[in-house]
């Protein structure tokens, strides 16, 4: 049986997607809880990775080792570094990059990973499906765009860092997991896409904004996952 794998970082993100699921079963592998069920008529397996690139990569590989995956969808909150984005807006990743991976001392661009390249392009078929979803969502009071997600093991709060990442990678949002999940999927030849909803805008005190908007971001991503499974 083929599954849509859904990887989130946090409990709040997991709960909103869990609310959509029926026929639920659970499977424990190591210390991870994989929730198996259906969203609409699609077979799905949902897992919370924990925060950060190592947790995300480890969880994605265990997911791939234990389930026959049709694709992997990463969903959750992110910080906006594109000045045209506001709280509640959604970015569907067209490609992702690790902004904190740096072997530029050896003549490569920052973000370049040996055997991977400067970035990882998300699956074109999935991008097309999500473009159709974007087109068909009506009467929305928020922006949805295809964009670039930059991941790193730091919760970005500083305005200068936000500017640097945006300028260097032309990125729209920052998070702490997406590009690590994408790297595992790339190496395992599994189609990948990411949905990120803006919870905060790095400004020196955005951790408070993040907490206030995490539920909104989680619900919005879950709604789009629901449309994907229709």
Q: Secondary-structure element sequence?
A: EHEEEHEEEHEHEHEH
Shape summary:
globular
Q: What is the count of structural domains?
A: 1
In terms of DSSP E residues, the strand content is: 25-35%
CATH topology: the name is: Rossmann fold
Strand runs, count: 10
Can you walk me through this structure?
The structure is a single chain. The chain has helices spanning 11-18, 53-66, 124-136, 159-169, 178-188, 206-228; strands at 2-8, 22-29, 32-39, 42-48, 68-80, 90-98, 120-121, 144-151, 173-175, 192-200. The longest helix has 23 residues, at 206-228. The radius of gyration is 16 Å and the shape is globular. Helix 1 (11-18) packs parallel to helix 6 and helix 2 (53-66) packs parallel to helix 5. The mean pLDDT is 93. The chain starts with a strand and ends with a helix. It has a single domain (2-228), classed as Rossmann fold. The protein is of the alpha/beta class and 230 residues long. 44% of the residues are buried.
Protein topology:
Blueprint lengths: L1 E7 L2 H8 L3 E8 L2 E8 L2 E7 L4 H14 L1 E13 L9 E9 L21 E2 L2 H13 L7 E8 L7 H11 L3 E3 L2 H11 L3 E9 L5 H23 L2
Parallel strand pairs: 1-4, 1-5, 5-10, 6-8, 8-9
Antiparallel strand pairs: 2-3, 3-4, 5-9, 6-7, 6-10
Helix pairs in contact: 1-6, 2-5
Q: Which characteristics define this entry?
A:
230 residues, alpha/beta, Rossmann fold, 10 strands, 35% helix, globular
């Amino acid at each position: 049986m083929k599954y849509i794998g859904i990887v989130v970082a946090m409990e709040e993100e997991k709960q909103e997607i869990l609310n959509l699921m029926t026929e639920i079963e659970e499977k424990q592998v190591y210390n991870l809880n994989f929730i198996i069920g259906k969203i609409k008529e699609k077979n799905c397996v949902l897992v919370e990775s924990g925060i950060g690139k190592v947790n995300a990569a480890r969880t994605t590989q265990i997911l791939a080792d234990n389930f026959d995956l049709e694709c992997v969808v990463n969903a959750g909150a992110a910080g906006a570094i594109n000045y045209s984005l506001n709280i509640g807006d959604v970015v569907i990743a067209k490609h992702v990059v690790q902004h904190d991976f740096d072997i530029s001392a050896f003549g490569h661009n920052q973000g370049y990973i040996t055997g991977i390249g400067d970035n990882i392009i998300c699956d074109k078929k999935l991008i097309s499906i999500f473009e159709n979803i974007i087109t068909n969502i009506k009467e929305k009071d928020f922006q949805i765009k295809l964009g670039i997600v930059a991941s790193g093991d730091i919760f970005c709060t500083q305005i200068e860092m936000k500017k640097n990442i945006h300028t260097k990678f032309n990125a729209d949002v920052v998070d702490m997991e997406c590009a690590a999940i994408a790297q595992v999927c790339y190496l395992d030849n599994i189609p990948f896409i990411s949905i990120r909803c803006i919870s905060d805008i790095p400004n020196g005190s955005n951790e408070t904004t993040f907490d206030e908007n995490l539920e909104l971001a989680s619900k919005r991503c879950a709604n789009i996952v629901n449309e994907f499974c229709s």
